[in-house]
Amino acid sequence: MKIVIFAPHPDDELIAAGGSILKWNKKGYDVYIVYITDGKTAYTKERERGRLIESEKTKISEEELAIIRSKEIDEVISFLGLPLENIYKLNIPSHFIKDFINQAIKRIKSIIKNTDLIVLPSNNNWHEDHQDTYDIVVSAAQKLQLHDVNFYGYAVYGENKAPKDKLIEIQVEKYSKKIHQAFKLYESQLCITHVLDYLHQVKSRKTELFGVYKLIDLGKYYNF
Ligand SMILES: [Zn+2]
Question: What range does the domain containing 164 cover?
């Protein structure tokens, strides 16, 4: 069983599917994670939104932040016990996915062929990187005609409005402590107020929720 999880930014994989990742890995499934952006604009954007807790550590350039975030991914992945070879960093600049669509789709196509399950952001996101990630992953899957593949849509920025018969709830209580510890390794993000909210949430999380679809369902649901 090959599972590919798409994270628009480093940390989305934990927020959306951290416990599920550990569960699937324990079952012996091949779990891959694709980080779409380098997340380098986080401080710039969050500063504008008034959600950044300033300190000496936040007085760095976007390029410096990109390097730190990339290192944090490696630490998190090692902590989770996944092989580093199962990680793809596309390093597209945040908020500029649209400028790299063709090369991103090409890369994603090579990663998702022979996949059984794709985990991706839901449709109808208010965060453009999450929406663009949804769009390019679906586009790559369409080009490959992955009709038998299941898509698990998660809603980080937006609502999960999947109907009951399309909802999958994965029990993750057993893993929440470890995910909380892993999340703290994304140290550069712990000065952003809404990230701290997520950190708090994952600590006591009992379930992770996904809308489950196939390509044939495309356009029929709010989230897909
Ligand atoms: Zn994100």
Answer: 2-217
pTM for the full predicted model = 0.96
Q: Ligand 1 centroid vs 220 CA: distance in angstroms?
A: 25
**What CATH code is carried by the domain that includes residue 129?**
3.40.50.10320
Spacing, Cα 36 to ligand 1 middle (Å)? 10
Per-residue pLDDT tens for 103-158?
999 999 999 999 999 999 999 988 999 999 999 999 999 999 999 999 999 999 88
- Domain assignment of residue 29, yes or no: yes
85-101 exposure pattern, b = at least 16 Cβ within 10 A, e = fewer: ebbbbbebbbbebeebe
What backbone torsions phi and psi does residue 93 show, to the nearest 5 degrees?
-60, 135
* CA–CA gap between residue 129 and residue 120 (Å, rounded): 12
Evaluate whether residue 222 is within a structural domain. Answer: no
* CA of residue 56 to ligand 1 center, whole Å: 24
